[in-house]
Amino acid sequence: MKEKLDAILKDGCDKIATAKTVAELQDVKASLIGKQGAVTEILKEVPKMEASLRAETGRAANQLKQQLTAMLDARVEEIQLKASEISPDFDYTVPGIFPQLFNSNGFGGLHPITQMCYDLNDTFRSMGFEIFQESDISSELYAFDNLNFPAEHPARESMDTYWLEGHDSGSGGKRLCLRPHLTGASVRFMQKNKPPYRFVYPGRVYRNEETDARHERAFFQYEVLIVDREFPFSAGMILIKSILSKVFGRDVPVRMRVGFFPFVEPGFEIDMGCLVCEGKGCSVCKHVGWIEIMPGGSPHPNVLRASGLDPAEYTGFYVNIGLDRLVMMRSGIDDVRLFHSGDLRFLEQFA
Amino acid sequence: MKLSLNWIKEYVELPADLELSKIAYDLTMATVEVEGWEDISKNFEKIVVGQILELEKHPDADKLTLCKVDIGGGEVKEIVCGGCNLRVDMKVAVSLPGAMVRWHGVGELVEIKKSKVRGIESFGMICASSEIGLFDLFPFTQEATIVDLSDFRAPAGTNVAAALGIDDVILEIDNKSLTNRPDLWGHYGIARELSAFYGLPLKKIEPCAIDAPEMEITLEDTARSPRYIGVKIEGLTVKPSPFEIQTRLWRVGLRLINAIVDITNYVMLATGQPTHAFDSDKIAGHITVRRARNGEKLLLLDDNELTLTPEDLVIADDEGSVGLAGVMGGKRDSVLPETNKIILEIANFEPIGIRRTATRYDARTDAATRYEKGIDPQRADIALAVAMKLFADLYPGISVTGFRDNFPVPLERKKVTVSLNWLESRLGKRLSNEEIRTKLELLGFDVEFAGDELHAIAPTWRSTGDISIPDDIMEELARMHGYENFEAAPIVTSFTGAINQPMVAIDRNIREFLAFRCGMREVFTYPWIKDEFVNAILGGNDGLHALSAPPAPDEKFLRPSLLPNICKAVAGNVRYFNEFSIFESAQVFLPGEFVSEYDSREALPIQRRNVAGAFVGGAEDVNALFRRAKGALEALPRHIHIENYSFERIEKPFYADDVVWLNIAAQGGEKIGNLALLSKKSALACGIKNNAVVFFELEIDALKPFTSRDNKFTRLPEYPLNEYDLSLLFDLSVKWAEISGVITAKKGEGDLLRGVSFVDEYRGKQIPDGKKSVTFRLIIGSQEKTLNSAEIENFANSIVKRLSKQLGAETREK
Fold first, then answer.
1. Size of interface A-B (CB pairs under 8 A)
2. Under an 8 A CB cutoff, do A141 and B492 touch?
3. Do B250 and B284 have their domain in common?
4. If you measure CA to CA, which chain A residue comes closest to B693?
5. Do B501 and A131 touch (CB under 8 A)?
6. Is B339 strand, coil or helix?
7. Chain B residues with beta carbon closer than 8 angstroms to that of A137
């Protein structure tokens, strides 16, 4: 019996080694351990054997079956990897081909949020604004301390912010997070540059929350800040109107009303007239004719101080707009999660 | 927060012609966001008081009764009803045809129609309380109990909402917009704001003087409990509160308990000041407000037993704690049916401690919500007055047997000095001193002028932190003036030079180059990576930054490269597309060093901006994909005007195929990117089975922009250039780089080579084993004359000779 098993093993080894395709291997597998395979036949005979032989033969046959199975699996992987094996003489020094319109499904294009962002950048550039970019990982110092969030503000403790492992228990500049909003970036810009300031700073921000069609963990904000010696808050209206008329291609009624945020004083909620009902009231605007579109206000004196400015001398105006929502409104997108899906069926709709 | 308009009107008389929409608009513009309003009487349209005149059994149904009902206006109608408590003379609520009701109190609202019930015409319906939304005011236990309105004076025909005095409008205020205005909690606060808007008198609530023996109350921590009023009231009984109080609480959504507890809730809704009633029989000795002992147990009203910490503030008697201060009362001393004496608590607690305790035990009670925003301690005076009046009205026989107002340090009114010139520049408008005075005085400020200075002294209810700097005064004046009444001012500016931000331009230029010139699609992916992609692409997570509470347990690592998530996007798209190309430009987070770029107190990981992409096609397309990706990268520097880079073989990226990879090196030689075929092994690990994927990644921050366009002009050739194609056989191991190197090596006088370009490489049929045919194009020309064909041929042959000598090139057999 031992000889018989050895013979099967030897034969199996040969067949496995010489098989060139996965299909060939399937046949080899069937001939060895399939329903009528050589090993299977032996296993079927085991119960009929003499008692003294039964245990030993059964064990040996099962062992062989396992051995062959492992070899077969290894060979399948080998063949799969080999199937794509590149000739070692592949010439990577050959010059490239310019990949014009490579994508057979259509043209390339920018992400719809990038499109919106560039639309706004162009608008603000035309008014002499610089563009600033802050890194994604920030600290409590910039995300909260510099922005006049009281030491006890719930947002600092809340689970809404993505804190970094190993850097989540300290405070200030040593407590690190994925930035929960863009506003901290303004202080970085002001610390590095000289007033007066007029700049925009687009970017992605992060909140640790459950996602659904209206909520995302990563989304885009666009902030605009102007700081100068004299700047009545009513001049902020120009910034707001610039954004909305660029986005919607026409003038949109706008109103500023009272709103409270730690980093501005006074603070505003900024509404735009509902474009669906032209302000008459409809289900989109919850029958008030206005849609809340962005917060804004004059930088709080403590924010100016953190930026190295004397609040008695300087003031300004800031607005923060959610790009995702604006793109959704402009294009009629109903699920915010599509933006990070990487799904070309979605992205190809934007040219 | 829900507010009853009728309740507000008790404190400020609003003109009859002041429309609700105007009030809501004005509050939204200048104070708090009104999210909506509900006219309660709208729910009772065509529901009237009816009086039963006659009752008769329905001939065909045991449980139904025929009722003759006076529905007012001289009309008597026959209505079929299944009520169990009907009697002659009873006043009931009748839903006339057209009214909306909820059958048996469940399901959607249904319109009542004239109909036949078991063969008999019924004009509407006599309702149970649950059918018209009044169950909380008229609870019942036995099914088919009809609302009995006999106690109400209103005659038949009166609308039910009017009959019950609930024809009110409820305003819904966004609580978030109250964050910095704790003075607005409660109807009195909003009434005060409206009185300021419209210049209407506010009803004054006179503090009440209490003449009673002094109770002992100890405040151990006056910072945490600045004020504590205790009033011992005897001679009470536990009974339902009067209907008027019940409906007020009901209208603004509060649960009805009993008269004593209802009064405490009423006071809170009226003034914003939480109050609490202890059963004084259960209080052993005297009340102490103190920090909890470590591990002290407290059984709360909601049967939740807490183990406290010294951070918590408790109300205690001689035996232990009886309540969690400012958050929730305890079980031991709660008001029970047999209660007849209480100690009424009207206290002030420091907000941060309350918020921490409420958060610690997840006890977001009405009291905690108000305390944690900061309530001025002086408000306890009006709360006490309102409470004592209600107790006296409801329980004429009571006696006050103990009183203590422990208020060691009254809150000072905040004084803010504002420069009038500064005010004008910020408002963009000059307000007269009189205007300023009037506006601020209406809001409860005292105002003094001294030269260019305005001294504004805030009322106590605005002195809890809300008003503290000149900007706050500016905001008060601006909102009272009306934000809409400021004309949008132009932005005035000066220029010192043009804006030049080359690194900002690079990022955009790269994206537009890849999208518009290379036909690639921009994607966005998350900064966190799934473990399977970390392992397949990066080969491990050594030193990677991670989130402490990641979106999913296997998505904690933050990307040091864009490729893992690009790969994920590829894996997602190969289900739908066989051929595509994508890219992303985003931040990556490098392991290791921390840096302080902005503030020495801060230390952030090194964060860089990368651009990465993938060219995806069929498994057999490796060569074409690789050349397209390479073509894109080769063209990029010239198109976006940056210093060129080169392709080198320095270090194989983990994910790359053993053969098909290149590093991208800056002119200094340092590696700034990669271009490589995704190895089959990594592809399979990412679930990509049937596609070839070529990745590239480039560090944007390492690119060096030219200060201007760098294209250089070459004089146009004077004599014709000739294209000359050659196909030669080479060993498989010979690379194009070597071939082109040999071709271009011999420069100098008389050299006729003006250029060389790769055309094609061919292996397979007709080519001997171990060989490949390489076709390339020579551009041949002289700068001195027009070449004849023999000269061209000669030159080409010299190149062939050189190639065969140095690289073993053979001409193809014809």
1. 333
2. no
3. yes
4. A84
5. yes
6. coil
7. 545, 558, 589, 604-605, 607
SS3 at position A131: strand
DSSP B511-575: HHIIIIIS--EE----SEE-HHHIIIIIS--TT--BBSS-SSTT--EEPSSSHHHHHHHHHHHTT
- A112-347: CATH, from 3.40.50.620, 3.30.930.10, 3.30.1330.60, 3.40.109.10: 3.30.930.10
pTM of this structure: 0.85
* Separation CA B633–CA B125 (nearest Å): 80
Q: What is the mean pLDDT of residues B50-76?
A: 90
**Domain containing B278: what range?**
217-406
Do residues B453 and B554 both lie within one domain?
Answer: no
C-alpha to C-alpha distance for A92 and B657, rounded to whole angstroms: 12
> What SS3 class is residue B646?
strand
Inspect the interface and report whether the beta carbons of B427 and A154 lie closer than 8 Å: no
At B98-155, the pLDDT tens digits run 999 998 888 899 999 988 888 888 899 999 999 999 999 999 988 889 999 999 999 9
Instruction: Answer for the pair B370, B354: CB distance below 8 angstroms, yes or no.
Output: no
Residue-range domain boundaries for chain A: 2-83, 112-347
Each residue of B275-318: pLDDT tens digit? 999 999 999 999 999 999 999 999 998 888 999 999 999 999 99
CATH code, domain carrying B747 = 3.30.70.380
Q: Rounded to an integer, what distance in angstroms lies between the CA atom of residue B396 and that of residue B181?
A: 37
Q: Using the beta-carbon criterion (under 8 Å), do A109 and B522 form an inter-chain contact?
A: yes
In whole angstroms, give the CA distance from residue A323 to residue A343: 19
**Number of domains observed in the structure of chain B:** 6
**Which residue of A lies nearest to B566 if distances are taken between CA atoms?**
A342
Q: Are residues B695 and B660 in the same domain?
A: yes
How far is the C-alpha of B203 from the C-alpha of B11, rounded, in Å? 5
B747, part of any domain: yes
Longest CA–CA separation in chain A, Å: 106
Query: For residue A332, which amino acid is it?
Result: G
- What are the tens digits of pLDDT across the range B235-268? 999 999 999 999 999 999 999 999 999 999 999 9
